[in-house]
Amino acid sequence: MTRAGLVWILMGIPALIAAGCATYPDPAATRGIAEKMVGEDFTAPSPGLLKRLEQDKAQQLCSKIGGATLTQEEAAEVVKLSRASIQYPASGRLSGDWKIGNKLAHDGAGDRIQGGRLEKRKENGGLCQNCHALAPGEINVGNVGPSLTGYGRQRGNSEAIAKLTYERIYNGWAYVPCSNMPRLGATHHLTPEQIAHLVAYLIDPASPINSR
Amino acid sequence: MPKTGGGLAVILLAFLAAWSTAPLLAQSDDPLAVGRKMLAEDNPGELWIERGKALFYEKRGPKGVSLEQCDFGLGPGKLEGAAARLPRYFSDADRVLDLESRLLHCMVVLQGFNRDDVVKRAISRPASDGSDIEALALYITSRSNGMKVNVSLTHQKEYDTFKAGEYLFHRRAGQTDFACVQCHGEANKRIRLQDLWNINDPKHIGEVASTWPAYRGAHFVVRTMQWRLYDCFWQMRLPELKYASDTSIALATYLQVRGNGAVIQVPGFKR
After folding, report:
1. Contact status of B156 with chain A (Cβ, < 8 Å)
2. Which of residues 76-105 of A touch B (CB under 8 A)?
3. Domains, chain A
4. DSSP B178
5. What is the per-residue DSSP string for B136-172?
6. Facing residue for A111 by CB, picked from B189, B190, B237
7. Is B202 exposed, middle or buried (0-12, 13-18, 19+ CB in 10 A)?
8. Which ipTM score applies to this complex?
9. Among B13, A90, B34, B194, which residue's Cα sits nearest to residue B184?
């Protein structure tokens, strides 16, 4: 190596140090930076509503970046937490009124925050239509989740199916950890009674979702 | 670009007709294609560009100066290609800023506007004349039309912001357990009839990065990326995202970097 070349290299090292060799922060640093942002960057009509931003343990485990998969231990933990979260209607009846369920399934409103106000309604909508195909012939339905058309026709309306269906709406992560399905009961978006109405809408032979 | 009121009404009627018949056409790949095509050829958002230009050069605010001294990264008043490289780090603010937060910075520091006042008006009401910042953002972005999105990470805070954006894109919270990726991580998904773009599809993320600000048909105004992010958090039942906050800038940075290479064409048109 020439003397001049060596000088250039030696002069270059301090320059690189001065530049700080900017690069991607590690995951722990990223988490710190981003969580600080979340803590500062939102407003709500009350401090209690700001708590919606806080993640529970299952949400933390289900927020992996870029489709990274859960370890077996993590999946087991999400399932365990989810199972423990499930509560049933006081009446014990897991299947309610399909007509009420039908209305709920097509209701996408409730509990949104805008202009410093909470959208307060008597009860929240079930949001189902946003993501699932429902009764045959309904076109204005989403496909983020699987089709529910003929749900009860395919599965019947036994106690076991009612319980499975109830639990998958209350907290679907007990069955498919970290699926896209909101834990509608566990997060208190819906009440146990509302979920029972949705169960009836899905499994009752008289429900339009099971018509041909 | 002058337009008669009658022409505008015809366009809007055509859009509404396409919209109302959408369920009948839902079997085709894109049920709104007819209305979209008509609007793409004659986008009402064009009307905002001239207004944004006038606002840019007008002496305004308590200090009575134009925005010509505002540096969007390529030097004061240099607008051509500037939006294509945003967000970026600005040493005078010691922050990474997107176009809207940079505009806000200049309106406050150079023109002397009250920050809270500008923020309060930043996102306009539907069917209104729109806000100053919406018109300015569209005008400035239109000066990058035909150029490629080219956001680079150089400064440490740019790397930090990008990674924070990626983290936030995947951060599930609230009673719907949603992060951005629940709706924008898979191909061929819809919320009801609305197509969802997919972050893993280069064409989709390119469109996200190159078509805002956009004319929003359902609102009859031009909307910006800050509005788009705010509205997603609203629908997710989360608290209200602060305008020009670091969270919003981090998400915008993540999206723009992922959309690098897409050719900017604004105003876009959204349903």
Report:
1. yes
2. none
3. 1-41 (no CATH), 56-210 (1.10.760.10)
4. B
5. HHHHHHHTTTTSBP-----SHHHHHHHHHHHHHHT--
6. B237
7. middle
8. 0.91
9. B194
